[in-house]
Amino acid sequence: MTVWVEAAGGLRPLATRRIGLLLGPGAEPGEWPHLLHPPIPLVDGVFPGAVTLAEAMGLAEATGRAEADGGRASPAGPAFDLLLWLGRGDLPLLGNQATLLRLLAQQVRRTCLVPVHYPLPESPAVGAPAPPAPSTLTLLVLEPRLVQPPGAPDVATGTPDPLPEVPLGFVALPILATRAEDAGARRFPGSAAWAVLQGAALRAAEGDLAGAIPTLSHLYRWLAGTDPAMAALVLRNLVAAALAAGEPERARQWLAAGQKRYAGYGELELVAAALHLIEGDARAAAAAADRALSRREPAGGVRWIPGGGHGGYRALTLRGEAFARLGSLHRAVEDWVAALRQNPDYLPALACLASRRVHRDRLVQFGLRRLGLGRPPAVRRYLKQVWRGSVPTRDFSGQVGSVPLPAAGPGAHPGVSWAPATGPGGSGVVSAPPSGPGARGTLGWEGPCFVHSSLARVNRELARCLAQRGWDLGVWPTEPDDHRPPEVPEWQSLARAQWRWPSPCQVAVHHRWPPAFRRRGAARHVVYLPWEFGALPRSWVEALAQVDEVWAYSRFVAAGAVASGIPPEKVHVVPCGFDPRVFRPPESEVPSPECGVVAPERGAPFPGAEPPEGEFRFLYVGGTIPRKGYDRALRAFLAEFRPDEPVVLTVKDFGSDTFYRRISGLPEVLAAAAATRGDARRVEVDPRTLSDGELAALYRQADCLVAPYRAEGFCLPALEAMACGTPPLVPAAGPALDYCTPETAILVPARVVPLGDRLGGEPLAGSAAGVEIEEADLRRAMRWAFEHRQELRAMGRRAAAAVRTGWTWDAAADVAHRRLVELGEG
Q1: Where in the chain is the domain with CATH 1.25.40.10?
Q2: Residues of each domain in the chain carrying CATH 3.40.50.2000
Q3: How do residues 111-157 score in pLDDT, each as one tens digit?
């Protein structure tokens, strides 16, 4: 390949060194299209014929330039200045460094060892799907894969380089060997430490662990006092081989010795993470992977031998597997995608992703649609499996043919007031007994399910209740789960319904962000609007013309939809709710275990800490984003109360590390918490991931919930707090007026204000609407709550009684059930 550069007098060719592929027996050039056929090839050609790795070191006559006259091909084949030896199934892990091979060709002046990963035989593979995937736990060896042909001239001097002498050079170009069947072609005889290590590792890869482990142990004792870098590498392989041999205790002892003696070697942290996963300790595995990701090699210390990606894509893959086993598939997928962005050819990350199911819209969002372009066949095979798993299974419960729809329950569908709410009012919800046990129908539900968000809570609670009413349910989760469902029948049944789509599907409900309007092969389609700003985006209004029904959380959202041009008869309020077995006043009975939670009673805000006598607690629950008004609550709290007043604002943030990551104001809250630490008036941040029972306990521990939102679709924390006997402080405008009255909540004077006809650059079908309150009014309301605790407790008791019947998830599911029945009959 000739590179032209601009110089005085015009363009002139720049002398470059040529790099070629040297293939082992049975290897075909088609295995590496990303090296040979991108827009700019990464190598200059393939050396004809097949040679073993040992033979590659003796190709002086065949590949060297016989003369230093500009690179004329020798009779035996094309002339190359550097050769990369690859065997069958080998993948050079170049990552996004597309020019790495070109740079090596310019800089490398001698044959170099590179790190090579071999699979362990029958190892407890981390994240192995079907078909079996390469494990993140490998045998790591050094092999002379970058061969400097003897007689090749130096570009700078034009003089031939002699045959390189031991010690060989080293280049951190990791290679993933996905198979070891051709060990004879790979084995390199010799007494050098790297050759002995390679021979033992190949024996282990072929299944002879009993013979390989003593050799590795002897080699380690030989190197321990003289070559710490090589000794650490051998010890790392000893741990991996012991794990593959089913000897975790022995592996643990070697690992502990290595971590003590070679504390700076990141490879040992990766092996530790794999060991913890095999032993079932996913939390310890995640911690070990975190240490590998954060480790930085100190300057001037031992130059450890890296396997590539130990502080990047390999550690991310292991940590993702740990998160998946902890039930947080959401964080796992983010780690696996991050690993693939660093190295698109890293098969273990692809294998982990292919072993789970992720909604195809998320895959598109992550950019995986373009990942397979020009990649090796093995990568494309895994990607095909990833995409195949991104759509739900079409068959459902073995049902075929027509399934009768449920019969309508008694009672008429409640009417909906389309005028914007201007004061406290009724809910518009009429409870009705569920239909009989024989009622059946097929229902598909698209949206996140077991995720820590209000949107996902709505999905799983309504889906659970509708399944109990006889609907045959299939759920298509649009977000990876971030927690496991409780080990009780009703939640396990819902978990089993994920990734199955009824066929035939009579009604499909889409409740997700961003909303989806395309029809999913169902007879009737419903879009449940996740919206808070009044007028809808114009593009939504056009798309909603194709759906059969539009659901809204509240009268406020419904009014915005109608004002945007959606026909009123098409819009229906299906409210949110709460589970009375979990969200309950402190005086009520402990919930039965059938609900899947054990809710602690009123007590310490954090385990082991009792609140001081007389201390007053405000609570904020939700994302720390301006729309929800966290900044209003924080500013009013700090401005109203003196540092010596016994009052606390506890902030329970959601989504700052996931869906609100880019707009979260959590750093501002943490700064306020640090600034007020030690004061009587202080800000606290609850960092825990809470179960429903723990969240309910947090509500009960508070004296007042603060929710000074600017825009909300329902404000679910306010309802949940009321159910727990904690009165909310909310604006006297917007969706909270559906269930809040002056007798059950502190209503801060507020008004609905226009926000313009565009939102985030999106043109709207009218003017967006937000809720405006004055800081002085919010401060007065917080002061009143602080100084009127008896009245506040009485308000909390009234609030719990008021929402106990008409605002549960069962009541909301009754409304949804009747809408679905009417749709089916229509």
Answers
A1: 3-388
A2: 613-807
A3: 889 999 998 875 444 443 333 334 678 899 999 988 877 654 443 34
CB 170 within 8 A of CB 141: no
Most distant CA atoms of the chain, gap in Å? 99
190: left (phi over 0), alpha (psi -120 to 50) or beta: left
Q: Cβ(202)–Cβ(231) under 8 Å?
A: no
Could you tell me where the beta strands, DSSP code E, fall in 236-325?
none
CA 357 to chain centre: 12
Show contacts of 159-167: CB within 8 Å, 24+ apart: 159/68, 160/64, 160/65, 160/68, 161/109, 161/110, 163/60, 164/110, 164/111, 166/192
CATH for the stretch 441-577+813-825: 3.40.50
pTM as predicted: 0.78
Tell the CATH topology of 613-807.
Answer: Rossmann fold (3.40.50)
357 Cβ partners below 8 Å, 6+ apart?
A: 389, 390, 499
- Give the tens place of pLDDT for each residue, 327-386: 889 899 999 999 999 988 899 999 999 888 999 888 888 888 778 777 888 888 888 889
Are residues 103 and 172 in contact, defined by beta-carbon separation less than 8 angstroms? no
Question: In this structure, what token pair is assigned to residue 285?
Answer: 């595995």
CA dist 438 → 221, 397, 407, 444, 464 (Å): 73, 17, 9, 19, 17
Contact present, 800 and 723 (Cβ < 8 Å): yes
Helix, strand or coil, per DSSP, at residue 200: helix
Output the DSSP codes for 570-631.
GEEE----B-TTTS--TTSPPPPGGGS-----S--SBTTBPPPTT-EEEEEEE--SGGGTHH
Report CA 347 to chain centroid distance, whole Å. 18
Taking only Cα atoms into account, the Rg of the chain, rounded to an integer number of angstroms, comes to 32
Q: Give helix 282-294 / helix 313-325 axis angle, nearest 10°.
A: 160
Are 760 and 540 in contact, with CB atoms under 8 Å apart? no
CB 503 within 8 A of CB 397: no
Residue 213 carries which side chain, given as an amino acid letter?
Answer: I
Architecture (CATH level 2) of domain 3-388:
Alpha Horseshoe (1.25)
Contacts of 426 (CB under 8 A, 6+ apart): none
d(CA 700, CA 697): 5
